[in-house]
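Model: Ready when you are.
Researcher: Fold this.
Model:
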Amino acid sequence: MKISSSPTSSPNLFDNGLRIARLKRYCEKSDFLAQHTNSSIIDRLAFVKRQFPHVLTMGACGFDFIHQIQSLGHGDQGINNLGHFSDETILSLDSSASHLCKSESKDLVLSNLNLHWVNDLPGILIQIRNILKPDGLFIGAFLGGDTLKELKASFLQAEMQLYGGASPRVAPMVDLYSASQLLVRADFKLPVADRDVIRVEYPNLSVLMQDMRLMGLTNVMCDRHKFMSSRRFFNLVEKIYVENHGLADKRISATFEIIYLTGWAYHEEQQKALPRGSARNSLKLTLETS
């Protein structure tokens, strides 16, 4: 498996060198969030009754992802002839990524838990759209803005109390509405954006932080403080977390928001929405008489 990155001309939010180093370790592991999104993408793909001879996968859990899809085979799951997968797992993406410059070369692009790390998400979506063949399909899953909202708030309050200011500790993430607008902006047809909110209980902050390291969610912001945070700081974060978001017996709850994007490249035979005002029956009358 090759791990690829390339330079970007957009403003850098993330330290790609540090992120790649951490994700190389992450690639060899598995976690509950990756398994959940793997299954959800496969479920969405199972409803599509067609062939995809040329497929590109993107994301830190690419190998597990491919194996799960290929193990389904054909038949009841509705996944037919998923042909040639890329032998690369793309962990770092930007608007000049060479993998996304081969116009109309893929029938299917699957992106799993990596789009929340890109410096230029609008540009990447446009390039994904461009590499799809006519009537090609894109399905992506990435972390949304409500992810780790409890931890973000606790970090902010602790830093304000100890240092009188705050530094970036958790990456900024888009919300569902913005994600749907980016699909439209990238000229995907039949666009769909939906979300899944997962709430996980942890015995303490230390176990949550261990999970974050496993999932590659620790701080890789370019503007992060480069020094190690003190035990005093993390003790205060945990105290605030328990006070504001604690459960019984001092356990804590963490939120993970997964945003799923689905869109198609244009094809003249695709289903099209009817022109506005062309309906023959009144929706109001239908609802009143049902």
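Researcher: Now this one.
Model:
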Amino acid sequence: MKKNILLIGLFLIFGIALQAQIKVSGTVTDDSTGETLIGATILEKGTSNGTITDLDGNFELEVSNKDAVLELSYTGF
């Protein structure tokens, strides 16, 4: 009986962990020029989870859930 409860608990925890890892990726560009933005910051709203764009303006970020909101910031020269 204890083994069954333990196994069910492990499956629930494993299922929650799988749902919590959603990978989001994209390219950040300037609307007016179409140029990619290098070093733009992308943060998951309300968290410290974030990343920056690479030399081609690309980013990849694992967010907490499918309803996560991303905030973008960029300081140009």
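Researcher: Key takeaway?
Model: The first helix runs from residue 2 to 19.
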